[in-house]
Here is the input.
Amino acid sequence: MSLLRRPVLTTVLAVALAWPGTAVTAAQPAPAAAALPTAAVAIGDSFVSGEGAGSYQAVTDVNGVSQGFPGWSAPNDNAFFCHRSANASLHRADLPGIQGRFNLACSGGQPHDVLNPSGNRAKGRAVASQLDQLRAVAATHDIDLVLVGLGSNNSSFTFGDVATLCANRFIADAWTGWWEFWAYLGGPVPQEPCAVSDLATEAEVAAATAETTAALRSLLTTLAQVDADGRHRIVFQDYTNPLPLDLLARYHEEDGRSDTRDKFRDLGAERYAAGCPVHRASLAPGHVFSARLGTVVQGAHTTLSAEFPGADLVLLNVQRAFDGARLCEQDGSPANSLATPIRLQDGPSGTFVTSLAGKDKLDVQRIANTCVTHFQTCQESWHPNAAGHAALGRCLTGAAATTARAVTCARSGDGTITVG
Here is the structure.
């Protein structure tokens, strides 16, 4: 599909029949309605809002008030923490014919938030429903392209909870000996690697698929009602894992200790500094989780393609878009990665802790608790960075131009992005 517009020209033909001697005045053509400017819109969660890419823009809250950065100690429900970035993939994609771009996605967004103000659910942000925001765009623009990234957060599980679970288990295992859990913490604390069942069960994935499909069904119905010319492409994008299937060998051991023994602080500090504080044994389950997120998006695309046979729906698989450039996949991480490292703050200071070397278990516990109390201090962790969103923008460029109903975006060893 080409995003270049094809103007519709209205021609008025006047035919006059007159009696002899009767003067005839030709009918004047009615003025043509001005065409609305074209627009591309992003709907969904953090992987399309631009989380991790910086340059976050002010966000209008549910009361119509523009919310800029409120400070790190502000409540997490502030609209600004939707983290809509000027570097998001929607803004980095090459979209010929598109005149306006509107990022309506919100970090932490769930299917619930498509139809309802997100502040109506726990841990939501104070913004109007994404469909209401879409209606406002449609009043001034002809929507030609919608990028949807939805499903990683839902009423069964969220990406943030999954990431926190696996990272916290690694940190606990690295800094605290088994006997210290009883001496200092009053009992055992989970410290084993994550298993597939810890992240999302098959029943939870099925529930997430139904929930996501229902929200996107409402999106398609609303677009049919409000889009100026009724023509638009909807791109269903899935998710990519910020971590590789295995870490580079240099991150396997430190000071002769691996992550399979009790307490390994030097290794824990090395992996945190590189952005990948996680057990090696958690990596494969993490990729199963990522693949299951793909099935959520694919399931929604399949169902809605059947229900709306005339709709222009494209499935964009980006699970290989970061190949070779994930955290701790190459030497020099995190600087050479397309994803953000896990980063914490020691209190809502705005200063990220980049090294845990020399810190004891009480230091680490205090730092980790900041993320619990003020989640915005760590919400950028394990998301595409600015370069990652630029890569996803190239994926979107391909999906907007393809004639296929499903495409895969992959990164080759030399960094080339291909879509096909």
